[in-house]
Amino acid sequence: MAFRDESPYRVRAFSDDPAGDPIDTERDCRLHECVDFYAQPELAHLSANRGNDVIRQFESIGSYVHTTEELLVGAKLAWRNHARCVGRKHWRTLELIDARDAVTADELAQACWEHVRMATNGGALQSVITVGPPPLPAGREFRILSPQLIRYAGYRNADSSITGDPAHVDITEVCLRLGWKEWHAVPAVVNMDLDEL
């Protein structure tokens, strides 16, 4: 197998074709995206060992875990490169809350409220991204059912008219079933298993 010369990381180019044309599989594409990510100037300060370790792990099991710094750099680059986002000029100021170690819905909800505190920043708005845990073994994963952390409630009246925000009638009804008392802002709903609501 050939090695790519344009990267400081030793990556085998996947090819079963004697002509050397790469086989275009999802795994191969993800591996090359990984190599390209570690070749970004924003990660140039990392040792080549980190990139090689990641590539070995990816080749072995098909995935790897970002460090918090790598996660932040990836989020910043994704925001910078999103052509339709009007706020992307602020990509360098993005802050990260790494909540990947949350193991309960309450811990993830606390990370969400920390997100609101950091983002509102005493009135001087700050760009923040919060990253929660990946799916757990057996496919269990956290869900934030609320479309946004702070939204206005919507109530279905007896005559089928709506009071408040019509876009949030369903989540308001879920919150009421969970024991929430009527108010203007709908609480964020975070859970582990949808069937436990």
From TrEMBL:
<dbReference type="GO" id="GO:0046872">
    <property type="term" value="F:metal ion binding"/>
</dbReference>
<protein>
    <recommendedName>
        <fullName>Nitric oxide synthase (NOS) domain-containing protein</fullName>
    </recommendedName>
</protein>
<dbReference type="InterPro" id="IPR044943">
    <property type="entry name" value="NOS_dom_1"/>
</dbReference>
<keyword id="KW-0560">Oxidoreductase</keyword>
<keyword id="KW-0479">Metal-binding</keyword>
<dbReference type="GO" id="GO:0004517">
    <property type="term" value="F:nitric-oxide synthase activity"/>
</dbReference>
<dbReference type="GO" id="GO:0006809">
    <property type="term" value="P:nitric oxide biosynthetic process"/>
</dbReference>
<dbReference type="InterPro" id="IPR036119">
    <property type="entry name" value="NOS_N_sf"/>
</dbReference>
<keyword id="KW-0408">Iron</keyword>
<keyword id="KW-0349">Heme</keyword>
<dbReference type="InterPro" id="IPR004030">
    <property type="entry name" value="NOS_N"/>
</dbReference>
<dbReference type="Pfam" id="PF02898">
    <property type="entry name" value="NO_synthase"/>
</dbReference>
<feature type="domain" description="Nitric oxide synthase (NOS)">
    <location>
        <begin position="46"/>
        <end position="190"/>
    </location>
</feature>
<dbReference type="InterPro" id="IPR050607">
    <property type="entry name" value="NOS"/>
</dbReference>
